[in-house]
Fold each of these.
Amino acid sequence: MMTHDDAQELLAVLALNAIDGLERIELEDHVAQCVRCERELDGLRGVSSTLGNVSEPASAELWQRISEHLYDDFDQGNLPPIRVLDFPRASVTPLESRRAPSTKNTKITAGVFAVAAAALVGVLSFNLVQANDHVAQLTNALGVADRGAVVAALVTPGHVNVTLDSAQHTRVASIVLLNGHGYVVSSKMAQLPSAQTYQLWGIIAGKPISIGLMGSKPTNVEFSVASALQPSELAVTVEPAGGSQTPSTPIIASGTVAA
Amino acid sequence: MEQFDEASDAQLVTLIGRYSEPALAEVYRRHGGPVYGLARKILNNTSEADDVTQEVFLRLWNNPDRFDPTRGSLRSFLLNDSHGRSVDLVRSLNARRAREVKDANRSTVADYDLQHQVWDMAVADEVKRALSALPVEEREAIELAYFHSHSYVKVAEILGQPEGTVKSRIRNGMRRMRLTLADAGIQGAN
């Protein structure tokens, strides 16, 4: 077990990739658990990267070669997991802003938001089941998502991402909506007892309308709905296994559907 | 990839998380040159530098969540990856090829926009200046470790110094460079 002082001695060496074997493993183990060392290492890696910041032409042929291998690890039966990344926007600085004259910053910022908006919002074509008293019928609306369909939705212009956050602002799940279909692509919902289920609701005109039952441990859930009505929000509650016609417990997570 | 010209690096990586090939192409356009340039510098071999560059970008494609924008720039992340993979390759081949440390400015000709090229050159100048300003024993230890892919143990052997001395020289040199570069407004490769 490496001590903090020993690790401090070696961080610069690690930033230069000049350490091998067990000593490196022990050092990396320590850094993974030590915020101070991690921060120090990030700073030192910034220095080492400037040492190597020497550009040479990267050819179009090499890009062609790379692009031909993008799906090597994937096949029909082994499609990739969805990666929904959410970087804090406040810490994201456009490349140009550090060095460009301020007159360009406005344009850059506008452009960045325009790109983000185009990528994340698109045209909402989501339809929702109208108010329906038949829970059993709604249960059939949910199924296990075909991962290929989820990937396709994520790369299709017009899809909408909805993040479901808890009251404590913790991300609970991410949902992708496209053309009347929805996919729960990333879920941190805890396993429920078998007597309970998560239930998904669309909020329309302030009223919760059931979309369907998500099961006791939702992962890669797909739902398909049809209505001219459009929800302003999606929400999840915990309900008895058979579901409820109206929420019988407080909402555990919700997210706004961008229009 | 005109539509991504003004997207931030973090936004591009978010899109890569959704399997956007144009976003990866834009990242390659921005940073492919330095990633390749560093690999070529370490390996002194164009074919192996191609392999390392391909591996770096495929790793970003397959595991975009490895990049954390709160911990540094994407350029810095990719360069560290490129350096790490190149060093691994050199060591696995167990071949210490003759590698020249060429003038950093000589080959700064990326397929990249002029503004970034000028910035890269300015950074390279500052780095060169900061490196030159170090005491010779610190500079020597850093160069042997970084550009010649030697472990600090090997550096100690080459310089005929105790390992602890080499560790201290590298540490002091890196800290000194960090301060000098920060004074020049450079926090890391961008």
Amino acid sequence: MKKRKNQGLLTVLPLYFFTLLFVVGPLLYMIALSFATNKGGYGFSWRPTLENYIRILEPVYLQTFLQSFRLALTSTFLICLLGYPFGYFMAKLSGKWKGRLMLLIMLPFWVNSLIRLYGWIIIFQTKGALNNLLLQLGILKEPLKLLYSYPAIVLGMVYALLPFMILSVYSSAEKLDWSLVEAARDLGASPFRAFCTVTLPLTLPGLLSGVILSFIPSMGLFFIADILGGNKIVLVGSLIQDQMTRGSNWPFAAALAVVLAVLTTLLIALYRKLTNVKELEGFY
Amino acid sequence: MKKNGWLSKCYLGILLFLMYLPIAFVILYSFNDSKLAVSWRGYSLRWYAALFQNEGMLEALKNSLILGIASCFLAALIGTLGAVGLSKVHLRSKGILEYVALLPLMIPEIILGMVLLAFFSLLQLPMGMLTLLIAHTVFCVPYILMEVKARLAGMDKSLEEAALDLGATPVRTFFDITLPLIMPAVASGALLAFAMSMDDVVISVFVNGPRTNTLPIKVYTQLKTGVTPEINALCTLMLAITLLVLLIYTLVKKILKKA
């Protein structure tokens, strides 16, 4: 029996080796790097310092963090607002339509995110499809400048991340025992009351996992702000990328990344505490 | 259970329409004869022709395909062996390993991209296909690990035990019993990983180096510097590729359901 116990050890080795070398290693290196001293021009020395972290407290960078948080919160809020009803209604469809809708949701989700963003650019350009339509209908006299603004970035974020919310809520609502809702209704609860006291708490894990799955990436999707925001709004993601490339201050970029990683880890821990589930609902 | 009213069905319809609207515009404008993406001037295939003369684009497409196939093959190998092994061994570090192995999905991509860039330059690896391959494998492994793990959890263990009791070696048991049973999960995980690899911008942009382009990176730089209509044609082609992959994926899922 003893021999059979650890017979799989050999097969786990590649995974151990790969994960330790290319996931754990780089992450530890990032933490070490965040305490190194920057010397300019991609150079740094290993003299330990806290100055990278202190620098984050400068108003410019705090502002960046706040702006990213504000954007992530705004997008996540809108994603909840749009995605929750979608997932909920979807779970109430018949089996055949559930499958069809699932495919329809997955499809754009799989299409390159840049391509989808570019589609919005075609529509929203100053001389683009939407403005042309509105001008021809006589609703507008002057074309609107829709791109390269804060709402445009929010739209891009919501559009890119909505499927995550829909799938999370759907997988939670799918498992919902509808007889509980009916029982509440039979006992005299209004539809609204039944929703608030039965449906919402039972689908909360899905909603919360959707929140996490949209909040975490929205902190890092720098290319959306880049393309739709025209570099007007600097986010943590863009800041890290900038410091790694043009700014050439790797220790500072590492410190920013550590702070971002800590914040996201705290968020996931909070989710686990709130819902008592180990794995994210509808994760893939 | 109460069925949806017409209002909720309208809601589903409108949101789906909005999801597909930008994609429809990309496809439509790839057949536009005009050089400017803003005006419509009749159908034409000229941008497709121009695309196939554009060596930079074709090079990027080639790189992306090689990368997608190689990284999802490597990830399938590491992930499948790992998932099978993890279901068998009883080590104290097992839980931690599983958590860490799924970490690439839990942290923002931007962090993964930047740490890999820093780490590769520490190892003095030249940035290019090799670093891209490693980086893509890093985020592909979790998809396969998760799919195979889920499949193994639902598998009848007595089949393996029967084979072992009848005198088959563990290696033979793996190839004759376990592998055929988990193959659909491996395939669907690998296809998912392939799609993710074909779509990645954030991580690739860090580790691609000055001369190596992937298709999404090419699209990204074009979107930043100035768009030529070829990009519409390219996007439509990429869409077609993705649809093809998705078609295979759903077919595999169907086989998985039947099995």
